[in-house]
Amino acid sequence: MKKIIAAVDALNFTEPELKSYRYLADKARGQLTILFLENIAGETVLDATTLETGFLNYEDFYADSVKARKEKAEENRKRLVNFYVDNDMDVTVRSLPGVPAAEVLAESRFADLLLIRNNLSFALLADTNPPMVVRELLARAECPVMVIPETVHYIDEIIFTYNGTFSSMYAIRQFTQVFDGFSEVPAKVVYVVENDDKKIPSGKMLKEYLTHHYEDVAFQSLEGTPAGELLALTLHKTNSIITFGAYGRSKTSRFFHRSDSDSLLRTTNIPLFITHP
Questions:
Q1: With contact defined as beta carbons under 8 Å apart, do 15 and 87 qualify?
Q2: Could you give the CA distance from residue 246 to residue 183 in angstroms, rounded to a whole number?
Q3: For position 149, what pLDDT does the model report?
Q4: In whole angstroms, what separates CA 277 from the centre of its chain?
């Protein structure tokens, strides 16, 4: 049975999010482990009185803040566990008090798939979009990562982005191995034409591979900029999953530039499966 891990902010999560993690773990035929990221020693927020008076006993303030965060985390952990118990969902919950990104990266080395929310953030002020922690996990995780919206709907389409590179095929193969129970879900290979070459690279071998795993396989070629074409393709979809390769690592192809993935993360409402060799 596969090991699926999901990164959850102990101070900010929703029940639809928790349900989505379990849904995807079930689809991967895996056991779900929740990484409950407490971030107890994280930064603190100054209240209005402190800002007005300019007076701050930092030691007392920090101690009170840590205490409040710990109490909130303990309360939320009970709520999370009760949610899964009440819904008869078997999960493992692991509380991690350290630096969230470092904790998750260490866990990813020993997992088959990492699930994270597209708005996961531990920043006190305005964060980037997608948040910095999401970008870091996508670039440095040592297992495939799936970035999800709050609610994942019933999956009725798999979109494989492909440009003939090893990284794009690696992502397709990794997804197929993790979600080996998706054989009945229609799969579509999307190729954005590069260098005016409309022929899908190694298309015959790719089709042969996919027909070993999926009952319904289709191919679609698009002309234009990769980011623009993929945004147009996925903008109004809610029941699809899309794959990408080599987030933040490969400079060999404009198709998989980090900015293209970021654009999809900002605007689409479907899970993105991203991995790299």
A1: no
A2: 24
A3: 93
A4: 17
